[in-house]
Amino acid sequence: MQQSNNKKVLLIGPPNVGKSVIFNKLTGLNVAMANYSGTTVDYKKGQVNYNNINYDLIDVPGTYTLDATNEAEQVAVDMLSEGADLVITVLDGNNLESSLYLLLQVLERNLPTIAVLNRVDLLEDKGYEVAHEKLSHEIGIDIIKTVAVSGEGIDPLKEKIKEKLLNDQTKKDINRDMKADWFEAERLNLEYLNKKNSTYDRDKDTLGDKLSRPWPGIPLAIIILGLIFGIVVGIGMGMRQYLLLPFFRGIIFPFIYSAVEAIIPPGVIRNILIGEYGFFIKGLEWPFALVFPYVVSFYTALSILEDSGYLPRLGVLLDGLFKKVGLTGGNIIPLLLGYGCAIPGIAATRALPTKKERVTVSTLICLAVPCISQTGALISLLAEQSITVMILVFAVSFLALIVAAIIMDKTIEGKNELTIVEIPPLLWPGPGVIAKKIWLRVKMYISNGALVMIYAIAGASILFELGILEYLGQIFQPIVQNWLQLPAEASAPLLLGIVRRELAVLPLLEMGLNSVQLFVGAVVALFYVPCIAVLAMLAREFNLKLATKVLVLTVGISFLLGGIFARIGNLILMF
Ligand SMILES: Nc1nc2c(ncn2[C@@H]2O[C@H](COP(=O)(O)OP(=O)(O)OP(=O)(O)O)[C@@H](O)[C@H]2O)c(=O)[nH]1
Ligand SMILES: [Mg+2]
């Protein structure tokens, strides 16, 4: 990271109070925000330049106390121990007492501190207000009221930060008699949190309660998740079928074909560009017509889910069910993120309380949670030819998750801790925030995912035209043809699949497979190597040993199951 002499300002606070929203407003950057605890699992740094004053603002993972209980919280404690020119403690208007405890702990560190009282809109909705001026007076630091999502209070906050950074010598007298204990926090809470009126919007909360109780929570969850799945697949397929494929195949490709044919004589070069793996063709069709629509539809749904506050409730609801297989309800968020991309999924495990849970959930994501790119590819491969095969593939993936979770629970040492899932209020996601989140993720897909895919396709087209793919196919013959009973060309997806998960699927599209082969190809792809970037992430987050284990495990299970299914499938076909 670049070293700078800028002043350092930390944003500290309990999870889910809006630190990242404030960070984004102050820096103009876009870091991930979501309505559940543990969104920010590593610190994020951004530079602020405000009225000629420069400083580095650091968005710290949320923590309830300075006695860290997970890795994300430890980051927060470490950041504070390194010192800062100013600490901004963000208090949750909606959950003042626990925020106050953290504030008291921060004040013990004797760093220049101000507080932000955020989410006051939620507090006011409940008919409460905080006498923040009196509170400020008692503890001896400035407190600024904000509604970060609407931008209210952000300008005064900018001014206050500037003022503090310019006169850091003249620290106000923090009340040194304050003790950081829960009694003190409770006393302050009782004293300064006042009921204003009683037009408390109870409906919102009771709906929230209902969602996390088995009845009617479970039927509602089935409806909500079913609906979301339908919308994701429906919108994805619709966009692909009626918008993107006609656009590429009807307009762009004919143009490319005629242009290339006019300029480049028949031969290897022309084939590399527009032949079987022609990367002008596949390099556009695969990332942008087949996968892109699902990336958009999935992240639209996920962003709305994230900000609604539903996910932690789903976690509570599923806790009992998850416990049966050795997981906890809190694992739902990393797993769900994994259905988008394994990397944020694994990152989100940092907020889990034990190493065992981190390893288990990360391994599950690598093994049997297809990322959205791969899901899009699987749908492209299967949906049109056989819905039954598609349903079977997803059923196999669920089954594998359950079995693998049980096995890991039995074999990995350690215990799963009872997690207390913080339940945020239900919120109507703001369209602006949602749009921003979708855009961020789509941008990420284009700059990372699609680009890597295009490189890989370019590589493949060269290897194919030079006959190297065919040669490699011969080496893989025992596995691909004899064991998996797939055509020889199916060694290509196995090679490409190491680079990106959907590339283990997409080449199968052109091979005219029968339904058993489709199923086998899809299952092999599903369990196969979780893509190079994910292995690197595992090595970084845990160690090389785990990355190697996951590699061996995924390839092993993928081939083992593939071969078994090929035999069972052919037996069934015979009758
Ligand atoms: N109603 C309301 N919602 C807010 C406000 N500020 C933030 N939010 C919402 O609160 C949720 C949490 O915001 P984040 O910025 O992700 O919270 P965070 O403190 O960074 O959370 P962690 O990274 O998990 O520690 C999001 O859904 C925001 O849209 C506010 O002032 N009012
Ligand atoms: Mg955050």
From TrEMBL:
The UniProt entry, under InterPro entries, shows: Fe2_transport_prot_B_C, FeoB_GTPase, G_FEOB_dom, Gate_dom, GTP-bd, P-loop_NTPase, Small_GTP-bd
UniProt keyword terms in alphabetical order: GTP-binding, Membrane, Nucleotide-binding, Transmembrane, Transmembrane helix
This entry's Gene Ontology molecular function terms read: ferrous iron transmembrane transporter activity; GTP binding
Indicate the transmembrane segments per the record: 220-239, 251-274, 286-305, 325-347, 359-381, 387-408, 445-464, 516-538, 550-573
Every copy of the FeoB-type G domain together lies at 6-167
Any GO CC annotation of this UniProt entry: plasma membrane
Q: What SUPFAM superfamilies does this protein map onto?
A: P-loop containing nucleoside triphosphate hydrolases
Cross-referenced NCBIfam families, in alphabetical order? Answer: small_GTP
Can you name this protein? Ferrous iron transporter B
Q: Which organism was this protein described from?
A: Halonatronomonas betaini
Taxonomic placement: Bacteria, Bacillati, Bacillota, Clostridia, Halanaerobiales
